[in-house]
Amino acid sequence: MIQTFVSFRNRLIILFRIRISDAMKKGTVLIVDDDRDVLLSARVVMKKEFPVVLVTTDPEKIPEILKKEEVDVILLDMNFRAGESDGEEGMRWLRNIHAADPDIQVVVITAYGDINLAVAAMKEGACDFVVKPWDNQKLLATVRSCYRYREAGREIRRLENTRRAIQGDVPGQMIGVSKPMQNLFDMVEKVAPTDASVLITGENGTGKELVARRLHHLSHRSNQIFLTVDLGALSENLFESELFGHVRGAFTDAREDRPGKFEVASGGTLFLDEIGNLSVPMQAKMLTALQNRQVYRVGSNRPLEFDVRLISATNRPLQEMVKNGRFRQDLLYRINTVVIHVPPLRQRKEDIPLLVNHFTGVYGQKYNKTGLHVNSDDMKRLENYSWPGNVRELQHMVERAVILADRNTLDFSGVKRQPASPVATMTESLNLEELERQAIAEAIRKHGGNMSRAAAELGLGRTTLYRKMEKYGL
User: Fold this and answer.
1) Per-residue DSSP letter, 406
2) Which long-range contacts (CB under 8 A, 24 or more apart) does 329-333 make?
3) pTM reported for the whole predicted model
4) What is the pLDDT of residues 64-86, one digit of tens each?
5) Which class is 346-472 in CATH?
6) Which fold has domain 20-149?
7) Mean pLDDT of 291-312
């Protein structure tokens, strides 16, 4: 039985993460603020990664801009009149934007560090918030993350059209008829109503964040905030400020009080992604906060209590890391009251035809190609492939096949075997690009789709690795 597994209200990332470095080549950001200096500063930061950055000092121009441009993320000031600080105008425009396009991601801007206003905006659908003056690195990371949600929202809507044709008018869902997925669904249903801390494990591309959001959606906190923190992208010097907050004057550029993620998420669910990437010093600080259920803002001696349902995720072997002294055992006990493992695609091969059909419908619609299908021989090839990149890799492969299709039958004849070992094929070709492709494929296979480890072994950054995977069709 197909199980419902997606919440449209939260605009989930389904089954995979969009490859940020490639997707943002097409992204459009709109910045709305009455301060021209803010517009100039934010535009300079955004142009580093987004090709189209629009600015305006007048929020009344937002509807006109949205009619002419396909905007992905909006940086929206909450106050536009001198002396105002209640954020009412910003909230009104936030609602208007989502009425026009519910998939547009809005990052609200406030100069007042008002946690209540920030929480209210996020309950109204804002993706995140930033406080003036901001740290450029954090601002870019925030917009980058929200852009990923925008892309995921598009995929959900496209998948829904395909699903309705197959299974009737059912809300968005994650496909799975295999035994491992049925076990996963059962576990989520049992654990979700509790406040137990959950550790979600699994390889990259399997859908760990989707599981976290489903746990929140089925919990008694579902009408409160679900807040994600990507610990893998958080540097040590920003860790305490980002998680615990800071007070004015705590450090250079700390011009206003700023709440941390624990405070903002209080009452709801806090999802700590990539928790295995925390350094040992950061682990100690995290453990103290979780044990005491309170935090101290940087520069303050006043404890602030919080009430969050904690969900963590990792693709790293934490038990092994504990043995090697790279992860604290006491912290592991705090975060893994219940462990939910998301199976890799190679362990749920009976789900592959369903996923292929869904993605074929998605990209057939996107690229205006109808009547597409996969022949039985190619479907067997897909079922017998090891899928080191999991559903993310499958999605990318189907999209490429749809783009290249010049007839109704998609061509997967190139999927013949497991990713090749460069040692085994070294004598077959001395072409440098081919050798690089083989080395990348072998590294991905060796590390079971863990892109961080594969990139480290290859001596590449993760962004560079994704770009080369795109280049070589991996």
Assistant:
1) S
2) 330/287, 331/283, 331/286, 331/287, 331/290, 332/199
3) 0.55
4) 999 888 899 999 988 877 666 67
5) mainly alpha
6) Rossmann fold (3.40.50)
7) 93
